[in-house]
Q: What sequence folds into this?
C-alpha cells in the first residue's frame, strides 16, 4: 500500500528539509516473507521521496511524506526523524566490550600494550538509569592505586578505575541533547577505533587516558525527547553550577573534569576566592569532615588541611584555575547534532592573546586533513558564541560544557563538536599519509554525501587520529603531505590569518576580534610564508583569467 503520512506539531526544521533532509525507515519482517533479504537485519534507510512541509492553521509544523510498504502483512515499518540510537543499544554495546576486554584480578599479569577497558556507573539519572563512564587506555603507567570515589557519585559497589601515572586525560561526552543521535555514532566510532589493533590507536592508548561518557541524558533518550531532560531542562546550560539532585549527570561530568584537572577533589566553600566563609554548612554532605576542618584551619596546619581538602568535593566557576597548575587534562570535546548549519564542525573558545587563539584552532584545522566532511570554515571561535543566549529560554552558552570547562580549568582545547543530520556543503581533499605507497586510496568524490552512521563513526576515528597529529606522535601522518607541512607551518598560517582578520576588523570598526593582542614578533619564516601564500593566490588569479576551465580543477 502507498501511504502518505502527515507528522503534525513536530519541531520546525524547515531549513533542514529545504536542504534535502528526509526521514529514515526500517522494516521488521514477519514470518511469511523470506524473499526480501534487504531488510533481514532491519537496517535504517532514508526514504526515497523528498518530504514536503507547511505551517497549518493552528501554527503547527506539518511534515508530509509518502512511502510504499511491503506486501507482507506481518511486516512492521518504523519511521524516525533521523538514524536512531537508543539507550538499550548503548547498554548492549558496552556489555559486549566488557566481555571482550575483561580485567584480570592481578594487573601485573598484563603487558604494557594490552588494552585497558573499564566500565562503571558514574551516577544514576533522575529516573534511575545508569550514566556510564568508560576508561580506555593501555596498561602502561598503571598503578595499584584506585581513583577517588567522588562525593555523591559512583553508587554501585564496584572498585574505581586504576590511576595511571604520567598520562594526560582526554574527556569526551555525547547525547546531552537526546535527539542528537549523530553524537552517539561519533562516540561509537571513537570507541571502536580506540580498542582496535591499529598501530595509531595503540600509540594513543600508550600516551593518554580516555574518559568517555557516551550518554549524558539517558532519560531524555529513553523518552524520545529532542533537547531536554525529564524536567524540561536543557542540560547543556547548567555546567557552571549543576545540582546533584536536579542535574546529576552534569554534576558528575563537572566533578570528573575537576578531579582530573586538579588531581584531587575540592569543595565549593574551600576554594572560592575572597570567600567570607570557608566552612561547609553542617547539612552539606559531611558533619564529621566539617568538625575536623575548623581546628585544622584555625591552627594553620597546611599539610593536614590539604589532606582534608582532598577528601572534599566540587567548585564553582568563581574559583577559576591556578595558572601555575599543571593540569591533568589534555582535551575536552562534547559531541552534538546540528539542524541548520551544514557539515561537521567545531565551536571553540575565544582568548585575549593570539597564542591561545592559535592553539585553540590547531585541533579543528587538523581535522580537515583527516576527515573529508569536516568544515573548518563553519567553525566558530568568537566570544559572542561563548555568551549568546538561547532564543526560547534565554539561557546563556556560558553554561555549556565547552565554556564552563574553560572557566573552571583554563583548558584551551575545549570544544563542542557539531554534526549536521543531513549533509555538508563540500568535501575536503585528504592528503596521502607519509607511507602512501602502501595505502589503498579510494577515489574521492567531490559531491558531499548524505550523512549516515558510517560517516559519523568515521568522524570519531578522525578525532582520535587528529589527537596524534596534535601531539606530534603520529608515525603515519597526513600533515607532511598537506599544505601545512608541519605543526609549526600550521600554526604560522593560523597566526597570519588571525592578524589579517584583526587588521581587517579594525579598519571596519568592528570590536569582535580587535581586543586580541597581536603585538607579537613575526619571524622571517612567517613573512616568507605570507609572501608565498600571496604569490600562490596571484598565480591562481592569473590562471583564472586565461584558462578558467583549468583553474576549476586547480582549485580542487
A:
Amino acid at each position: 500500500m502507498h501511504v502518505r503520512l502527515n507528522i503534525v506539531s513536530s519541531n520546525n526544521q524547515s531549513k533542514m528539509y529545504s536542504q534535502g533532509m528526509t526521514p529514515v525507515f526500517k522494516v521488521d519482517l514477519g514470518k511469511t516473507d523470506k524473499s526480501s533479504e534487504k531488510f533481514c537485519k532491519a537496517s535504517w534507510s532514508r526514504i526515497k521521496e523528498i518530504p514536503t512541509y507547511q505551517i497549518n492553521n493552528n501554527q503547527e509544523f506539518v511534515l508530509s511524506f509518502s512511502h510504499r510498504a511491503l506486501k507482507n502483512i506481518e511486516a512492521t515499518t518504523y519511521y524516525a526523524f533521523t538514524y536512531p540510537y537508543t539507550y538499550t543499544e548503548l547498554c548492549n554495546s558496552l556489555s559486549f566490550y566488557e566481555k571482550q576486554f575483561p580485567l584480570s584480578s592481578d594487573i601485573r599479569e598484563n603487558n604494557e600494550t594490552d588494552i585497558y577497558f573499564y566500565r562503571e556507573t558514574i551516577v544514576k539519572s533522575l529516573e534511575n538509569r545508569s550514566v556510564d563512564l568508560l576508561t580506555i587506555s593501555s596498561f602502561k603507567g598503571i598503578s595499584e592505586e584506585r581513583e577517588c570515589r567522588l562525593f555523591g557519585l559512583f553508587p554501585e559497589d564496584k572498585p574505581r578505575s586504576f590511576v595511571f601515572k604520567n598520562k594526560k586525560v582526554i574527556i569526551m561526552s555525547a547525547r546531552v541533547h537526546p535527539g542528537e543521535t549523530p553524537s552517539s555514532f561519533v562516540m561509537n566510532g571513537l570507541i571502536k577505533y580506540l580498542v582496535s589493533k591499529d598501530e595509531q590507536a595503540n600509540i594513543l592508548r600508550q600516551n593518554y587516558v580516555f574518559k568517555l561518557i557516551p550518554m549524558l541524558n539517558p532519560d531524555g533518550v529513553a523518552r524520545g525527547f529532542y533537547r531536554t531532560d525529564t524536567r524540561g531542562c536543557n542540560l547543556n546550560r547548567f555546567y557552571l553550577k549543576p545540582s546533584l539532585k536536579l542535574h546529576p549527570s552534569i554534576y558528575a561530568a563537572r566533578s570528573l573534569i575537576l578531579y582530573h584537572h586538579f588531581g584531587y577533589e575540592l569543595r565549593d566553600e574551600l576554594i572560592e576566592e575572597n570567600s567570607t566563609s570557608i566552612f561547609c554548612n553542617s547539612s552539606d554532605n559531611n558533619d564529621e569532615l566539617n568538625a575536623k576542618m575548623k581546628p585544622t584551619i584555625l591552627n594553620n596546619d597546611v599539610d593536614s588541611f590539604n589532606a582534608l581538602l582532598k577528601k572534599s568535593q566540587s567548585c564553582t566557576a568563581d574559583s577559576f584555575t591556578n595558572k601555575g597548575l599543571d593540569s591533568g587534562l589534555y582535551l575536552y570535546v562534547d559531541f552534538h547534532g546540528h539542524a541548520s548549519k551544514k557539515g561537521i564542525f567545531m565551536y571553540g573558545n575565544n582568548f585575549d592573546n593570539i597564542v591561545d587563539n592559535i592553539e585553540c584552532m590547531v585541533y579543528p584545522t587538523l581535522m580537515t586533513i583527516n576527515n573529508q566532511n569536516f568544515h573548518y570554515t563553519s567553525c566558530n571561535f568568537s566570544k559572542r558564541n561563548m555568551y549568546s543566549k538561547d532564543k526560547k529560554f534565554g539561557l546563556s552558552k556560558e553554561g555549556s560544557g565547552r565554556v564552563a570547562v574553560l572557566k573552571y580549568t583554563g583548558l584551551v582545547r575545549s570544544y563542542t563538536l557539531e554534526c549536521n543530520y543531513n549533509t555538508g556543503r563540500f568535501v575536503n581533499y585528504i592528503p596521502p599519509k607519509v607511507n602512501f605507497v602502501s595505502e589503498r586510496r579510494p577515489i574521492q568524490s567531490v559531491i558531499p554525501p548524505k550523512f549516515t552512521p558510517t560517516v559519523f563513526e568515521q568522524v570519531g576515528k578522525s578525532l582520535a587520529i587528529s589527537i596524534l597529529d596534535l601531539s606530534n606522535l603520529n608515525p603515519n601522518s597526513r600533515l607532511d603531505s598537506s599544505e601545512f607541512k608541519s605543526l609549526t607551518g600550521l600554526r604560522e598560517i593560523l597566526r597570519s590569518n588571525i592578524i589579517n582578520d584583526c587588521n581587517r576588523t579594525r579598519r571596519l570598526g568592528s570590536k569582535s576580534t580587535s581586543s586580541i593582542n597581536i603585538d607579537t614578533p613575526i619571524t622571517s619564516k612567517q613573512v616568507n610564508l605570507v609572501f608565498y601564500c600571496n604569490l600562490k593566490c596571484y598565480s591562481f588569479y592569473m590562471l583564472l583569467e586565461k584558462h578558467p576551465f583549468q583553474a576549476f580543477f586547480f582549485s580542487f
User: Anything to note?
Assistant: DSSP finds 16 helices and 15 strands in the chain. The longest strand covers residues 115-124. The longest helix spans residues 524-546. Residues 544 and 553 are 11 Å apart (CA to CA).
